[in-house]
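Can't paste images in this forum, so I'm doing it all in text. The chain is below; anyone willing to post the predicted structure tokens underneath?
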Amino acid sequence: MNQYTFSGTAKTVTIGAMIVGVVSMLLTWFVGADDLQSRFWSNFLHNSTFFLGISMMAFFFIAVCITAYAGWASVFKRVWEAMSAYMLVGFIFMLVIALTTYFHWNHLYHWADAAAVAEDPILNGKKSFLNPNWYLFGTFIIVGTWVIFGRKMRSLSLAEDEDQGHDFAKHRSMRIWSAAFLPIMGFSSAAMIWQWLMSVDAHWYSTLYAWHAAVSWFVAMICLTILLLIYLKSKGLYKEVTNEHMHDLGKFLFAFSIFWTYMWFSQFMLIWYANIGEETTYFLLRREEYSILFYANLAVNFLIPFFVLMRNDTKRKLGSLAFVSILVFIGHWLDFFLMIKPGVKITRDEHGHMAAHGEEVVHGAAEHGIHELVASSFEVGYTIPGLLELGTMIGFLGLFFFVTLTALSKAPLIANNDPYLDESLHHHT
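Text version of the structure:
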């Protein structure tokens, strides 16, 4: 059977998850709100960037495989094509954030406040890049370009199914589009990561930040690929996807979890060793005030995949792969939480809107380009994710699977005219 039908329990579960997400977001707005609705907007930013990045990485890996003449994944490439369909939805969500930033309807970014920029020499020096105009039009142009490439590649892949001449013209076109996309993605994704994520800590910067975030997206994408394939195989589909393919996906999960750790530690070690105030403040805040998440992040995203997947046979066991994939996916969602929430909380506090518990604020020492850590208090939604954050994530995850499974049901699961299909069907490691 080479066709997936999206109906019944799967559709009910994904729609139910989306309802949970909508309810959680409404409760965040009306019940769990602060004066600036920073909790709502930071949750929206967190999940919008996280799932858009996963979708983009699925398309990126298709382009990598085609450009590198890698045929091992051809048998299940339709899963990545379906995941990349979510880029259009993610594009719409990021435009919402860009528009609300442009019109000052949210307070996610300190640099979006013209008065703050005028009084702050650090922000004033970065205003050519950190400004609402570039945020809006950069998001529109760059993510719009990703969507155009994704839709073009999808149309070529479907057209290849109908190509009975076997002249590989469609595949050659796909190779050209893939080769063109890779450098575009490399430069543009870094720019968007700096704008969307790193700039919530507007005085801080790191040359490794974009790598760290992109690898986190990639590992989360591999986790969802493994889980989707296990689900489809449980339905009697994708019998052609063997333990050899799952083993390779397990190797990618293992290898890039280590690579993510390398990025994480390199960024931490180099900044800490240099002991430059405007850089170390980023890790000082997270290590001292978010210590549970700070160390749990490393444990879940490195130690668990490292020790579980180190054994070669473990990467062939679907139960072990599913267990690690679920934990690591949640771990990288927490990684993005830790990237975003501390900076958003500082911006909220610097606007003078505290959570009414009498706590002192983390003051910005703009003349030195640093934040002086004075005191902080435990605050659900910022210090750790609360039920509303988890509910919002479930809603976005449900939407991601709804879009993915809908796209998956609209084409054969196996691209029968892919020139590397035979290699993939006989893949052996």
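Strands lie at 363-365, 370-372. Residues 353-375 have pLDDT under 50 and may be disordered.
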